[in-house]
Amino acid sequence: GEDVLDVVLDNGIKLQHNCGGVCGCSTCHIYVTKGIDHIQEISEKEEDFVDRAVRPKITSRLACQCVVLNGDIEITVPDQSGFLGH
Q1: Is residue 15 within 8 Å of 9, Cβ to Cβ?
Q2: What's the pLDDT tens digit per position in 9-68?
Q3: Which run of H or of E encompasses 30?
Protein backbone atom coordinates (compact mmCIF):
# COMPACT_ATOMS: atom_id res chain seq x y z
CA GLY A 1 0.00 0.00 0.00
CA GLU A 2 0.83 3.66 -0.23
CA ASP A 3 0.88 6.09 2.66
CA VAL A 4 -1.72 8.84 2.79
CA LEU A 5 0.89 11.62 2.71
CA ASP A 6 2.18 10.47 -0.69
CA VAL A 7 -1.36 10.14 -2.07
CA VAL A 8 -2.32 13.60 -0.83
CA LEU A 9 0.83 15.29 -2.18
CA ASP A 10 0.61 13.41 -5.50
CA ASN A 11 -2.87 14.90 -5.93
CA GLY A 12 -1.71 18.47 -5.35
CA ILE A 13 -3.22 18.80 -1.88
CA LYS A 14 -1.10 20.81 0.55
CA LEU A 15 -0.40 19.05 3.85
CA GLN A 16 2.26 20.08 6.35
CA HIS A 17 4.98 17.47 6.92
CA ASN A 18 7.82 19.27 8.66
CA CYS A 19 9.91 16.14 9.33
CA GLY A 20 9.77 15.06 5.69
CA GLY A 21 7.46 12.12 6.37
CA VAL A 22 9.67 10.07 8.71
CA CYS A 23 7.41 10.01 11.80
CA GLY A 24 9.45 12.72 13.52
CA CYS A 25 6.67 15.24 14.24
CA SER A 26 2.88 15.49 14.20
CA THR A 27 2.31 18.15 11.52
CA CYS A 28 0.77 15.68 9.02
CA HIS A 29 -1.96 14.79 11.52
CA ILE A 30 -5.23 13.71 9.89
CA TYR A 31 -8.56 12.21 10.94
CA VAL A 32 -9.64 9.01 9.17
CA THR A 33 -13.39 9.55 8.77
CA LYS A 34 -14.23 6.45 6.69
CA GLY A 35 -12.52 3.17 5.90
CA ILE A 36 -10.51 2.76 9.11
CA ASP A 37 -10.57 -1.02 8.47
CA HIS A 38 -8.63 -0.46 5.23
CA ILE A 39 -5.49 0.97 6.85
CA GLN A 40 -2.48 -0.52 8.56
CA GLU A 41 -2.62 -0.66 12.37
CA ILE A 42 -1.04 2.24 14.24
CA SER A 43 2.48 1.71 15.64
CA GLU A 44 3.58 2.73 19.13
CA LYS A 45 5.89 5.40 17.70
CA GLU A 46 3.09 6.89 15.59
CA GLU A 47 0.74 6.79 18.57
CA ASP A 48 3.27 8.78 20.64
CA PHE A 49 3.37 11.53 18.00
CA VAL A 50 -0.43 11.50 17.51
CA ASP A 51 -0.75 12.16 21.25
CA ARG A 52 1.26 15.38 20.71
CA ALA A 53 -0.88 16.53 17.77
CA VAL A 54 -3.35 19.40 17.99
CA ARG A 55 -6.78 18.07 19.08
CA PRO A 56 -6.13 14.33 18.62
CA LYS A 57 -9.14 12.01 18.36
CA ILE A 58 -9.57 8.24 18.36
CA THR A 59 -9.50 8.40 14.53
CA SER A 60 -6.27 10.45 14.41
CA ARG A 61 -3.32 9.22 12.35
CA LEU A 62 -0.16 10.66 10.85
CA ALA A 63 -0.51 10.79 7.07
CA CYS A 64 3.12 9.71 6.61
CA GLN A 65 2.53 6.50 8.59
CA CYS A 66 -1.06 5.71 7.58
CA VAL A 67 -0.73 3.03 4.89
CA VAL A 68 -3.83 2.14 2.88
CA LEU A 69 -3.94 -1.66 2.55
CA ASN A 70 -7.04 -2.07 0.38
CA GLY A 71 -10.29 -0.29 -0.28
CA ASP A 72 -11.08 3.40 -0.01
CA ILE A 73 -10.69 5.74 2.91
CA GLU A 74 -11.82 9.29 3.62
CA ILE A 75 -9.80 11.74 5.65
CA THR A 76 -10.26 15.17 7.16
CA VAL A 77 -7.30 17.49 7.60
CA PRO A 78 -7.45 19.54 10.81
CA ASP A 79 -6.81 23.29 10.61
CA GLN A 80 -3.08 23.72 10.05
CA SER A 81 -2.98 27.52 10.09
CA GLY A 82 -1.26 27.55 13.49
CA PHE A 83 1.94 25.87 12.24
CA LEU A 84 4.97 28.11 11.83
CA GLY A 85 7.22 25.75 9.86
CA HIS A 86 6.79 24.85 6.20
Answers
A1: yes
A2: 999 999 999 999 999 999 999 999 999 999 999 999 999 999 999 899 999 999 999 999
A3: strand 29-34
Domain boundaries, the chain: 2-76
Q: Are 3 and 61 in contact (CB under 8 A)?
A: no
Question: Given 3.10.20.30, 3.60.21.10, 3.10.20.340, 1.20.190.50, which CATH number is that of 2-76?
Answer: 3.10.20.30
Residues 6+ apart with CB under 8 A from 49: 23, 24, 25, 26, 62
Question: Residue 79 and residue 11: Cα distance in Å, rounded?
Answer: 19
